[in-house]
Amino acid sequence: MTEPATNHICALANPTPQDNYFIKCGSTQNHVIVDNRYFVGDSSQKSSAHLSQQGGESISLNNPNPPPNSSALHTSARVFTSASTYSFQINNPGTHFLRLHFYPFSNANYSLGNGDFSVAANGFSLLSNFGADFSGVREFLLMADETEHLEILFAPTRVSNFAFVNAIEVFLAPKNLFFGEGGVRLISPDGIIQEFKQNIPSQIMETIHRVNVGGSTLTPLNDTVWRTWVSDEDFLVLKSASKTAETNSPPNYRPGGATRNHAPDIVYMTAREMNVANGSWSLFNITWDYPVPFGVDKHFVRLHFCDIVSVSLDTLYFNVYVNGITAYENVDLSSLAFRHLASPCYVDFAVKNTKDLGFLRISIGPSDLTPLRKNAILNGVEIMRIMEYSQRRSKKKSISILVVSFVCGFLALSLFLAMLALSKRKRKRRSAAISGWASLRSSFASPGPHGYYDLKIPFADIQLATNGFDESLIIGRGSFGNVYRGVLKDDIKVAVKRGLPADSRQGLTFQEFQTEITVLSRIRHCHLVSLVGFCVEQFELILVYEYMDKGPLRNHLYGSNNFPPLSWKQRLEICINAARGLHYLHTGSAQVIIHRDVKSSNILLDENYVAKISGFGLSRPGQLVDETHVSTDVKGSFGYQDPEYLRRGRVSEKSDVYSFGVVLVEVLCGRPVVDPLATGEEGLKLVEWAMEWRQKGMIERIVDWRIAGEVKTGGSLEIFAETAEKCLAECGGDRPSMGDVLWNLERAYQQMQNEC
């Protein structure tokens, strides 16, 4: 349905509180109940909000194939082909929640997952060059005055030419959600603790994490302001160092402490405490790594506490650490909770981040003041991005800039499409390939939030670096094409992956090319191969990486006589390096990333035998709040694929864990996963063959003969073999996380050093 630019849309405004707007976009329904909220279609007759557009039109889309039991908010969407603004009358001054729901679906005319757009609130940029290629909710907290309207602007970029949204929530936050005037403690990377003088309620913040520590995921139905709280399981660095605690008694709320508006009862009725019953873990802190966006300067953090583990007052003292810095020493919950047990309270502070650090690490550990049993607890965590006010511009100026950008982008796109049409007439035989290349090229035609423009390398520079793609410089071959050794103008040694011709049935696909650039331009880690740049000129698909002198791990295990055999110590170090890289993908970046193609040829070694993960063409975003897996076409390398993935087409972080377990077996045996030239069972089923010897208690029989004299029975070998076995569990739920795998490999390394 197409609607004129003058159309007025509405949202239901409940009388108490007055600022309660819940909009189901692209819908004519008068009311839809979702988790005790009444959503109103933006094309219904109950008018209390207004939509205006800067030329063009908006379109109502209905989801032609909504999944069974999906949310009612996912059945429709509003699509904008020009800059458009929702306007909400603000009747009560104060902090407001703003939630934007995105559920990309496809119909005959639009694939919403290809949208690329910006969103602003009263001229303040909330999302820039945003692409909602997976479903989710973006939540913001912002101050709004009763004398103004809250205007939410959606502006398409020239990449996609449209924006969309499925639902919008705007409502007044509870008055006691934040303290009024005054700042909070600010923790800097250099260890300096000072006051964050800005008033927290006056800040614009985006919710990054809201975590029910020690408990399960809580849906909006369980929260007074419809928040989602996720389990902390996937953020724990070492699960063995903690255990969960819970109580059936409701929280003992006290005046001046936390209320149900701060967190649901169940958050305060569950917790995670130290695993003091296991003496070996009694000295370890409990640590969580929370992925946060790169380049963000400050985060607001709220820690929720409720002492449900103590039997008397003044027995629980502990320390809180942030990124390794002591944030709070000798926390005394008896004092914080006004001398009552099981009484909820919370602590607020701000963290100034190192901008190249992709996670925020929070730890709790025992204090020396503890008179009896050492312990530490945590019930909940909230992390929000503090959005700098330097981004704020005048509303008119912001809208004008966005509109001008859109118009210019539209003209540029029209010119580009006209040129492409002429090109297609001349190249009919290669039309499909050229079309795909052209659309991909336009995706990276301008600078974006992830710095794509800065990564572009002219084809002439790559030709010069590789001496015209001299075959003597080839260092690798594959179905994607060849990899060349090269040197750029500034004497940077690089590896150049050149895709096969665009009309080839094999080669580096457009999707894989785009995925590698998207993933590697957003993340940086010492155990992930860095992307130097890319080229999409003259129908070429070229990726340029940092050069890894020693090449793939595979070549050092078998199939090459050019390298000396790796020692047991080197093999353990390489496995630890690779595990750190995968652990970072799963927990350390802004979005969980599933590699999907972990294998020994995608683990590269530098001149010092430091290992780094490569080959991100098949990578996919990981689980969302309400998912444990991602459904996808089966990809990957034969012999390394997760059995559950093969059976069901469902991939998760545990799929990477399985593949890494296969690599561990390769490292131990020094044999390929599938070797049709070998005799016996070990030739065709290396993993099954190795696990049979493991079950017989004779794992030493499969150790690579070149290091058999170094590896002693038991000790490091036993820990390594046990780790591999757990990774290879048939059921993904029985496999360890990469954090646990890393911990055990480091333990094996320490044991190896003791054996020497």
Automatic annotation (TrEMBL):
Matching entries from CDD domains are given as: STKc_IRAK (cd14066)
Name the PROSITE patterns for this protein: PROTEIN_KINASE_ATP (PS00107), PROTEIN_KINASE_DOM (PS50011), PROTEIN_KINASE_ST (PS00108)
Which cellular component terms (GO) are annotated to the entry? plasma membrane
Gene Ontology MF terms in the entry: ATP binding; protein kinase activity; protein serine/threonine kinase activity; transmembrane receptor protein tyrosine kinase activity
Where are the membrane-spanning stretches? 399-422
Q: Name one Pfam family in it.
A: Malectin_like
Which terms are listed as keywords in the entry?
A: ATP-binding, Glycoprotein, Kinase, Membrane, Nucleotide-binding, Serine/threonine-protein kinase, Signal, Transferase, Transmembrane, Transmembrane helix
Entry-linked PANTHER family: OS03G0124200 PROTEIN, OS07G0166700 PROTEIN
Q: What is this protein called?
A: Protein kinase domain-containing protein
What is the species listed in this Swiss-Prot or TrEMBL entry? Erythranthe guttata
Give the taxonomic lineage as stored in the record. Eukaryota, Viridiplantae, Streptophyta, Embryophyta, Tracheophyta
